[in-house]
Amino acid sequence: MNETIEHLLNHRSIRKFKQHQLDEETIEALIKAAQAASTSSYQQAYAIIGVEDEGLKRQLVDVASGQQYVAENSYFFVFCMDYHKHTLAAELAGGDVSRTIETTEALVVGAVDAGLAAQNLVVAAESLGYGTVYIGSLRNDARRVSELLQLPDHVVPLFGVAVGLPDQQPGKKPRLPMDAVFHRNTYTDDDTMRELLTGYEESTSSYYGERTGGQRTEGWVKQMAASMHEPKRTYLREFLKEKQIAKD
């Protein structure tokens, strides 16, 4: 096992950071690492907004359900799906890409491109000794985030990434059994999957029980059943249409 794999296997979300600011050289190195990620058909259909203004960070805390580490970190990045630059490129070339970027395929490509870039940035940051945490709760009010960051049409905020020097050492959450994720040739049958999930419920229940001193004991299965019982952020469909993405 090499150092890169060790870093990957050691990943955990950090939600408390020491007072520290990233220097410009580190910021640029992280962005370059993000840009080196694979991208569908060379589209590079994402934008990264570096949020440096403290007042702006505090307003994003409000969007993100009061999560203070959105503001209290070394640097905060917001990853967006971005087809605005493609519309400008089409104009420069005397063309039109509007029908393409309004498709569901474009939605998938933009989200995947942004996710790949973000994970490259996270791995790079952690290799330098920083901690990271993804902030999906920015989608609680993507319209507000879009307004705050002055995002044009065809640009949609997807999630944030907070980076900083760790001021905590949380336990590493156990992942699903490999056989519940990695399927050889065909998808695993339901009986086997149920057995795997039952065992995983027990291990994650034990993890949370130890982490909280017995105050929380539900495992992954019960968490998913509860958290996914009702759909969330259903306004996003209309918001995407407003941004002129995924209108088909």
Automatic annotation (TrEMBL):
Pfam family, one: Nitroreductase
CDD domains: NfsA-like
Assigned EC number: 1.5.1.38
Record has Flavoprotein as a keyword: yes
TM spans (from-to): none
Matches recorded under NCBIfam families: PRK10765.1
Boundaries of every Nitroreductase domain copy: 10-164
EC category name: oxidoreductase
UniProt protein name: Oxygen-insensitive NADPH nitroreductase
GO molecular function term, any single one: FMN reductase (NADPH) activity
The keyword Hydrolase appears for this protein: no
Keywords per UniProt: Flavoprotein, FMN, NADP, Oxidoreductase
Protein family membership: Belongs to the flavin oxidoreductase frp family.
